[in-house]
Amino acid sequence: MTNLVALRKEAKPSAAEYGIKLTYLPFIMKALTMCFRKFPEINAVVDDTDNSYIVRGEVNIGLATDTEDGLTVVVVKGCDQLSILQIAQEIQRLTVAARDKKIALEDLKGGTFTITSAGSIGGIMATPILNYPEVGILGIYKIAKRPMVIDDEIVIRSMANMTITLDHRIVDGAAAARFMNELVRLLENPGLMLVEG
């Protein structure tokens, strides 16, 4: 996450001028939208009435939000059509409404994939539980400086763990690994989101 940490730090003052708190989540959501182009079956929902699944054309990413009453999954709709700052603004609007118990029912519906993030409370690893009927959920955890070996030298890098849970009736482990590799590629090189996005 080293390059993403630097990019966010550079972009935070610009976002603040618009009253937007820029977290890592908008970058992760934008990277996910790009991954769904290569792996559309992960942006899908299960239909148990006829034992099938529906690949969703839209990208509506749910975000598990910590509230007094437990987790509430708010949905950022049309992530593939929004800029990173627009996603950040929508996350801010939805999470404040959820925590203030003023969230509209419409803002809780229509998700095609979910993120759960325990990083802000120090979480480093977990197995996220599917938000049925969605096919996938991503867990993202605390970013911390760790020693890494790069070019045979020990260097300090900003690292984070990620986990994914998928409905294996739809997506197998090999596809999951390829999906995560693509997500890692984009998060390690966030400038690619501008070039390829």
Q: Your description of this structure?
A:
With 197 residues, the protein is α/β, with parallel strands linked by helices. It contains five helices and nine strands, in the order H-H-E-E-E-E-H-E-E-E-E-E-H-H. 34% of the residues lie in helices and 26% in strands. The strands form three sheets. It has a five-stranded mixed sheet with strand order 4-3-5-6-9, with helices on one face.
What's the arrangement of strands in the largest beta sheet? 4-3-5-6-9
Contiguous low-pLDDT stretches (5 residues minimum) are none
Largest sheet descriptor:
5 strands, mixed
The count of β-strands is: 9
Distance between the termini: 19 Å
Percent helix: 25-40%
Helix and strand succession? HHEEEEHEEEEEHH
Share of residues in strands: 25-35%
Shape: globular
Radius of gyration in whole Å, from Cα? Answer: 17 Å
Q: Count the DSSP helices.
A: 5
Structure described in brief:
Helices cover 34% and strands 26% of the residues. It has 197 residues and is an alpha/beta fold.
Keywords:
9 strands; two-stranded antiparallel sheet; 197 residues; 34% helix; 26% strand; alpha/beta; globular
Protein topology:
Layout: H1 2-17, H2 25-38, E1 44-47, E2 52-55, E3 61-67, E4 70-76, H3 84-99, E5 113-117, E6 136-140, E7 144-150, E8 153-159, E9 162-166, H4 173-188, H5 192-196
